[in-house]
Amino acid sequence: MGEVVSPQPVKLICGILASDLRCLQAAQEALQRQYGRADIVSEVWPFTQTDYYREQTGPSILRNFLAFEQLIEPGRLAEIKHQTNELEKKLAEELKTPWPRPVNLDPGYLEPAKLVLASTKNFSHRIYIGQNMYAEVTLMFHKGAWRSFEFTFPDFRGPQYHGFLSEVRGRLIRQRRELHEMKQ
Predict the structure, then answer these.
(1) What secondary structure, in 3-state letters, does the chain show?
(2) Burial annotation 49-66 (CB, 10 A radius, 16+ → b, else e)
(3) Chain segment 22-69, per-residue pLDDT in tens
(4) Which residues partner with 65 through β-bridges?
(5) Quick count: other Cβ atoms within 10 Å of Cβ 34?
(6) pLDDT tens digits, residue range 102-156?
């Protein structure tokens, strides 16, 4: 029989799609009020890989990621996805844009071997994680590089985000080492 072992803490990240810079900044601030300081913030990129969000978020969508300083237990992902859904609704009311969904928040977590993203939608490659939420391994880190899967979102397939994710991965490894040293 296998021994049950508690999972190691992981790095909470959140992807943001926003209608404009004002909406992006409001989302960043709301997320940091909810989850604490972001210790790594990505560049802001134009989101041009798909028109899927155009009707809800607008014609010139911006993409950004935050990684939070405080490590989390990976079993919290469903709870966090519910919280970010509520934040989206609150921001939509406060921002008063012509778009019904001026920010789209995609929480997930990173551990040294993979990036996991939460979803409200079931699909063949997603697993149920409780509280009516699903998750998928979007990328894996293998032989020194991020690797995608057939189902990986198009914007995650290319190398655009990989530098940010590698920086987050390195920070997580250092944080875990520090935690281990403190326990000894």
Answers:
(1) CCCCCCCCCEEEEEEEEECCHHHHHHHHHHHHHHHCCEEEECCCEECCCCCCCHHHHCCCCEEEEEEECCCECHHHHHHHHHHHHHHHHHHHHHHCCCCCCCEEEEEEEEECCEEEEEECCCCCCCEEEECCEEEEEEEEEECCEEEECCCCCHHHHCHHHHHHHHHHHHHHHHHHHHHHHHHC
(2) beeeeeeebbeebbbbbb
(3) 999 999 999 999 999 999 999 999 999 889 999 999 999 999 999 999
(4) 15
(5) 15
(6) 999 999 999 999 999 999 999 999 999 999 999 999 999 999 999 999 999 999 9
pTM of the model: 0.95
Q: How far apart are CA 66 and CA 86, in angstroms?
A: 18
Enter the tokens of residue 31. Answer: 């997320």
Contact 135, 127 (CB under 8 A): yes
d(CA 140, CA 119): 18
- Res 173 pLDDT > 90: yes
